[in-house]
Amino acid sequence: MKTFFIAAIASLALLTSSCMENKSENKETELQAIFPKGEKLSNEWFTGNAFLQPLVARDKNNDFSAGNVTFEPGARTVWHTHPKGQVLIVIDGNGIYQEKGKPAQSLKVGDVVKVPENTEHWHGATATSKMAHINITNYKGDEQVQWLQPVSEEEYNNGNKK
Amino acid sequence: MKTFFIAAIASLALLTSSCMENKSENKETELQAIFPKGEKLSNEWFTGNAFLQPLVARDKNNDFSAGNVTFEPGARTVWHTHPKGQVLIVIDGNGIYQEKGKPAQSLKVGDVVKVPENTEHWHGATATSKMAHINITNYKGDEQVQWLQPVSEEEYNNGNKK
Q1: What is the pTM of this model?
Q2: Which residues in chain A are closer than 8 Å to B85, comparing Cβ atoms?
Q3: DSSP secondary structure string for all residues of chain B
Q4: pLDDT value at position B45?
């Protein structure tokens, strides 16, 4: 009888331990990104740690370039404009998008933002969550972007209040 | 002593059961799509069950439309061409892409395909796995696509051999 009980406890302990190990492996799978992180982006144009994985280079058919940008918590672009607009498609995490003179918007997975031409704006992760978005950035002639000044701590904190 | 053993067995059984329940919840979270599935696509142009969630409509800056297409296992486009090419960005599952006269290619998460202009091709899920891709389809004038004949069972089976 005692042998039976000991065997039963040992079996259940093994089962529980195996289940919990698999559970932590599954958690890693959930968090696996769709694209490689890519290269770190210059702090001249990105505050904090942001990375770019290029996806599509401009060619005779595709008059845009596209990439995946991953922002670590706290990271964001500087203020900037695009001469022919841009599309952002959020695929991971939580972020912020703001146009000059307008309230900041929260970004979540699945959101799509059409950035208008020549409009000062910034985007990035929240202070507490990373964010990743695909961007499709159109060309006007050979230009895609004009970089401006960094987003101040005050502006960023206000953006996080949403 | 017997009471102790019974209590230990009962506790471990509860722990295992709770762990396994959480594990199946986690599995559901892993499989949560980035975009809504959208509307079922016509069997005139898609064999099997495929769905479209529109993401970006053409406008003065973005001379393309973009959407997310989800193919259930076995589903695929018919053969077709694009007058100004297309970009496919695979975000879920496993699929197949084939251009006329060339071997079929496997598609996996993170893959990017540049479909050339005026090239007969098809794409879809494998026979055993769903697949989802973002597509960015350029306009030539007001045209984006010319639909042709369905992918035969033989062609599809050959595509699955990869």
Answers
A1: 0.84
A2: 61-62
A3: -HHHHHHHHHHHHHHHHHHHHHHHHHHHHHT--SS---EEPPTTTEES-EEEEEEE---SS--EEEEEEEE-TT-EEPSEE-TT-EEEEEEEEEEEEEETTS--EEEETT-EEEEPTT--EEEEE-SSS-EEEEEEEE-BTTB--EE-PPPPHHHHHHHHT-
A4: 98
B15 part of contact set with chain A, CB < 8 Å: yes
A116 in contact with B, Cβ within 8 Å: yes
Q: What is the pLDDT of residues B77-127, one digit of tens each?
A: 999 999 999 999 999 999 999 999 999 999 999 999 999 999 999 999 999
Closest in B1, B5, B29 to A9, CB measured:
B5
**Whether B9 contacts chain A with CB within 8 A:** yes
Contacts of A89 in chain B (CB under 8 A): 55, 66, 134
Q: A26 and B23: CB-CB below 8 Å?
A: yes
Which one of A19, A59, A139 makes the best mutation probe of the B interface by having the most chain B beta carbons within 10 Å? Answer: A19
Q: Which residues of A103-141 are buried (b: 16+ CB within 10 A; e: fewer)?
A: ebeebebebbbebeeeeebbbbbbeeebbbbbbbbbeee
ipTM computed for the complex: 0.83
The answer to whether B129 and B73 are in contact (CB under 8 A) is: yes
Tokens (6 digits) for A46: 């990105």
Of residues B115, B107, B27, the one with CA closest to residue B71 = B107
pLDDT of residue A96: 98
